[in-house]
Structures are given as structure tokens and as C-alpha cells.
């Protein structure tokens, strides 16, 4: 009577997992991905920081309206490989986007942004609150 080696089964399981992971390399990359952002309250303004590595300043579009900040970036990439008689050329477009609802109204015309080393920083001054409130008498 021969005994089964439990490590053989584990080895077969790892082989099956590696085969499955190999299929992920063949899958296409999604056309649109989301941007991770940090939102900080700096007292009189909001500061939004987003990592957009590999994008040029001209490929990034920002807009703010109705307490919503929209960040979109799109770039075209191409690669070419040559191996003997075979030539492979691939082109694809990669885009990322994110809409972020701000906790308060902002002065849209006063917003500013900078882009340094792949990090986008957007400063959005808060809108002045209406201090023209009036007292209401209770009968």
C-alpha cells in the first residue's frame, strides 16, 4: 500500500493557479480607470491631490461646477517589437477619470491647480457664507 504525498497535491494546486494567473496577462486593460484622490480641508479652501503618473500637463482636463470637481486624463501609447521576420505594433488609449462631490460650495473662478512630478494638486477656495441672516421672532 502506497501513501499519498500531500505535497504533491499542493504542487498541482499551485500549477493550476499559475495557469489561471497567466490568463490575466492576456486580458486587455480596461479603457477607463478611476483616479484615487485625497481631499483635505485647509480651513478657507479645499485641497485635492491626485496621482497621475505618466501623463503630460496637456493631457489632463479639470472642471468644477455645482460642488463637483471632475478630473479626466487621456493619453495614447504605442509600442513596437521586432523579432526576426515578425513585427508587432500595438496602440492603445488609456484614460482615467474621477468626479468628486465637494462638501461645501467653492469659488469656481478662484480655483487653481498645479502638476508636478505626476501629482496634481487642486486648490478650491470655499465660497463665502452668507452672513446676511436675520432674526426671526417667535410669537
Automatic annotation (TrEMBL):
<protein>
    <submittedName>
        <fullName>Hsp20-type chaperone</fullName>
    </submittedName>
</protein>
<comment type="similarity">
    <text>Belongs to the small heat shock protein (HSP20) family.</text>
</comment>
<dbReference type="Pfam" id="PF00011">
    <property type="entry name" value="HSP20"/>
</dbReference>
<feature type="domain" description="SHSP">
    <location>
        <begin position="28"/>
        <end position="139"/>
    </location>
</feature>
<dbReference type="InterPro" id="IPR031107">
    <property type="entry name" value="Small_HSP"/>
</dbReference>
<feature type="compositionally biased region" description="Basic and acidic residues">
    <location>
        <begin position="129"/>
        <end position="139"/>
    </location>
</feature>
<feature type="region of interest" description="Disordered">
    <location>
        <begin position="72"/>
        <end position="139"/>
    </location>
</feature>
<dbReference type="InterPro" id="IPR002068">
    <property type="entry name" value="A-crystallin/Hsp20_dom"/>
</dbReference>
<dbReference type="InterPro" id="IPR008978">
    <property type="entry name" value="HSP20-like_chaperone"/>
</dbReference>
Amino acid at each position: 500500500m502506497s501513501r499519498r504525498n500531500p505535497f504533491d497535491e499542493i504542487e498541482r494546486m499551485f500549477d493550476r493557479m499559475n495557469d489561471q494567473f497567466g490568463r490575466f496577462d492576456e486580458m486587455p486593460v480596461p479603457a477607463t480607470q478611476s483616479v484615487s484622490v485625497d481631499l483635505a480641508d485647509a480651513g478657507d479652501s479645499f485641497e485635492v491631490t491626485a496621482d497621475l503618473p505618466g501623463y503630460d500637463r496637456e493631457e489632463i482636463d479639470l472642471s468644477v461646477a455645482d460642488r463637483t470637481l471632475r478630473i479626466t486624463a487621456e493619453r495614447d501609447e504605442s509600442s513596437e517589437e521586432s523579432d526576426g521576420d515578425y513585427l508587432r505594433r500595438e496602440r492603445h488609449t488609456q484614460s482615467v477619470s474621477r468626479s468628486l462631490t465637494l462638501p461645501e460650495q467653492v469659488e469656481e473662478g478662484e480655483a487653481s491647480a498645479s502638476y508636478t512630478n505626476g501629482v496634481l494638486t487642486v486648490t478650491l477656495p470655499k465660497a463665502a457664507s452668507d452672513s446676511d441672516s436675520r432674526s426671526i421672532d417667535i410669537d
